[in-house]
Design brief:
The relative contact order is 0.10. This protein folds into two domains: 38 residues; 160 residues, no CATH class. It has one helix and ten strands, in the order αββββββββββ. A hairpin with a 2-residue loop joins β7 and β8. It is 16% helix and 26% strand.
Amino acid sequence: MIDPHGREEMKRRLSHCLLSLAMAVSGVVSGITTDTKAQSQRARQGPQTPAPIPGPIVQPSATFPLKQVGYIKPSNPNERVQFGDAVALSGDGNTLAVGARAESSAAAGINGNQTDASAPSSGAVYVFARQGDRWLQQAYLKASNPGINDQFGSLVALSADGNTLAVSAHFEDSRAIGVNGDQADNSMEQSGAVYVFARTGAVWSQQAYLKASNTGEAEEGDGQQRRSRVCVRSRGPPLVAAGLHQVVQSQRGGCQ
């Protein structure tokens, strides 16, 4: 049998629990009511303008006109040639080089037979020059030693004036070292090469065939030659090339 004092204590605790529960329920209901009222008010006001995103946003204007000035395709378009996979624009904005590393012509040098398709993924580079608001193809460039799967045009780089162009062929196979070595050799698989072209007036010519001073095969698992870099500078060292395992940086910034 519970004594009177114990019964009173139980009543007091029960009352306290009921009061706490009532306050909690009241708060939830009040929150729901407030949120419902807010939603109703937003619905009456119609769509809201989102808050502005912080940061510099440049809108097209007379100061910053934005317009498309060209739609560029190669002179020998074909399936899966990957035209546009590598792009370089000269500093003056008047010369554009576009790589198509999977182009398949066996032509060599400048403006050769573009209709040939006997050297799959030998690669090509297309040079365009701007005349006013028009872009015209100026040259069709191939390696001096095109080979199947050499992927000439994997990377392209132009000098500021557009008169010097460097082109990499990540999977070129010659064992040659240094400058203008034996291009006919194919005994060093995927050793890679860089080709330098120069323009006089509107005429392009190959100026150099470059290999590493320590030419070596790509090792097993080195399928990421696209981590290489090639860069042409208008000041300082004129050409910077970096292979998969070697990183060469110029002494002046901006070309890495």
